[in-house]
Each structure stands twice: as structure tokens, then as C-alpha cells.
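REQUEST FORM: STRUCTURE PREDICTION
Request ID: SP-0412
Submitted by: Lab K.M.
Chain count: 1
Length (residues): 412
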Amino acid sequence: MDRRVVITGMGAVTPIGNNIEEYARSLKEGKCGIGKITKFESPDCKVSVAGEVKNFDPAQTVEKKEVKRTDLYSIYAMEAAQQAVEDSGIDLESIDKERFGVIIGSGIGGLITIEEQGRKLESKGVNKISPMFIPMAIENMAAGNVAIRFGARGTCISVVTACATSTHCIGEAYRNIKHGYSDYILTGGSEAAVCELGIGGFAALKALSTSDDPERASIPFDKERGGFVMGEGAGVMFIESLESAQARGAKIYAEIVGYGTTCDAYHITSPRLDGDGASKAMLNAMAEAGIEPKDIDYINAHGTSTHINDASETLAIKKAFGEYAKTVSISSTKSMTGHLLGATGAIEAIACVIAMKDSFIPPTIGYKVPDEECDLDYTVNKAKEKEVKYTLSNTLGFGGHNGVICLKKWEG
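STATUS: Completed
RESULT:
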């Protein structure tokens, strides 16, 4: 028998707040977390802004000696997971650790470490590569480190689907509990790719905004959009069966009720221009939830601020929602945070939970110039009060990977 799955804890490290309270407040205020890049200097680079995490001390999350032995993306994941565990109120000593899992992913993994060790190879030779290079760099190590920290001996998986990574992680975790394989899972994603190699790589693809104005760099659905802004951070949820949450009297934020996953099978970087794959993912998520488009109150769009993505996602919403496309509230919180790559789906699903909990729609900030290709309600520039019962969180990754989560407000 299928089980209901609920969210009882959340943690976030983002460009607009390093915990859930700060993140929620910034979403309501429409705070811009994008600024001049401070993590490196590269005079030749045409990209000058990013959504960096601010005022974060890794030594507050891991012991000082471990900071140099752990890539930043793993540290972000451990911090967000620690917050989620504490927020859940779970007594980890009282549960069956064999039924406690971790499904946390990263789109790129330890890119800062890869860059550092590549430079060491070039300057000092192969014998000077750090013995910790591989454990720091590989994309499953955020999940591994989180599992070690909390003694989670059940399933431990890292889904890697580029920008759709953490949405797929949450969806697979949801199904894992729904079908009885686990009782508790820490799930989400983490990324720390604001470095010369990361920025330079995406800039070479012509994917990044070259605007030097932080307020007009990440501008989803605006006609003058010209590329996405790199962000960094992590989002992690503690999810469990409704039965276990109620048995321990846990605070419940929301219920995960649907998951849609499709592939465009079209191009390595471009989405299908007709939005068909993303549309089907939204429809699949709503079908599993047992609801119709008219029931959705809010869509947190992928909304990267690239021309093709925003136009094709708008078409996808129109295909999936039909006559209701014009009335559903939509926003792209990437206008505030930038694009966290593999972590973006997690912080955006958390934004959906916050929207349901606090009855508001986060804004798409920085919007000035309407685009005839993007003609839906994107909640521009200012949050609005609204009762939100059902939400969709969309993420669409390179390679044509589409992931959609459907969430329902917990009403007891």
C-alpha cells in the first residue's frame, strides 16, 4: 500500500540567506542576492556577477582540520542537512538507521577542488596531486558525508541530471518512501561552482549573462534577458512517511504528492522549443497528485533568464495548463538567487513550501521590459499575498532532463 510522504525539516544555504528564516524573509522582500564576483579575479572574463553565499564560515559546519579536506559543495550540503535534521525535531537515536537514507546530488560536484588540483598538476607535477582530490571532487560525496554525519545506513544515492538534479533527488526520495523502501530521507542538492573554471566554462557556452549590473543580470521572462547568473549553495529537506511523522508528533510543513520526470531527447543544452517535454513532466506530476491544472495556485518556474528557456517554459505551461495558464501565479526565484545548478530545484521546492506556509507568491524581481513570447503572470517585482494549497516546482536540465515536484500545503 502506498504511503503518504511529508516534509518535516528544511535547511538552506543560499545567496539570500544561510538558514530558512533568512531565506524566507528575503523571498518575501524580493531581495537580490546577486553581486560582483569576489571569489576570484579574472580580468579576461566577460562575466562579472554571481549569486555568492555570504558570511558563511565552513569551520562552523565541519572541524577546522576538515575544511581543507572537504570541498565547499559538500560543506554546504552538510550545513543544510544539519539545519533540516534539527528543524525536524527527530531523535536519530530512536529510529532504525537502516530505514534512514540520503538522496542528495550535485550537478558538477567538487569543481573548486578540480580547478585547484589541475593547477597543482600543471605547476608542480603529477606527484603533488592531493590524496584527497578524488574524495573531495566526486559528485556523490555530499550524500556520503551527510550519511556519515548522521549515521544513515539506508539508501544513499546521488542523482546527477545537471540543473534538474535536486528535483530528481527529491522525487526519487519521495517515491522511495511512498513505496515502502525507507522511512526517513534527507534529500536535496548542493553546488559550489563559482570559480574560474565554472564561470569560464559556462561563459564559453554563451550561457551566462554578461551584464555588470546585478539588478539587471538575472531577469527571467524580461525581453532583455541575455543569460543566467551562476549561484551557489544547498537546500535539504528531511522527509518521512506521514505515519512516522504523526507517531512522533512532528511539525509538518507540506506533503509531497506528485513527481514528473521526462526527457526532451532533443539537444545537449537546448530544451525542446515547443516545451513538450516540460509540459508532460508537469502533467505527470499533477496526475500522480490526483489534481488538475485549475488546482495549482503557484508554479516556481525554472526561469533561468536565457532566451530559449524562458520562452519554451512559457509554452510548456500553456500546453499543460490550457485555459488556466493565464490565471496561475508564476515566478522565478532565480531572479534573486541566480541559478544554483544542481541545487536549484531543492531551494526552489523549499521556496514553494514557504509560499504555502506563509500564503504569498515570491516575486520575479528586476523585471522591466515585457516580452510578447512570455505573456503569463510572473508576479513581477513584488511579492503578493495569496492562499497557496498546491504548487509545482519546475527544473529543466542540460541533456533534456525535466523534473517537476507537486507539493500540497499541510492542513492537518
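NOTES: Residues 107 and 139 are 8 Å apart (CA to CA).
Reviewed by: T.R.
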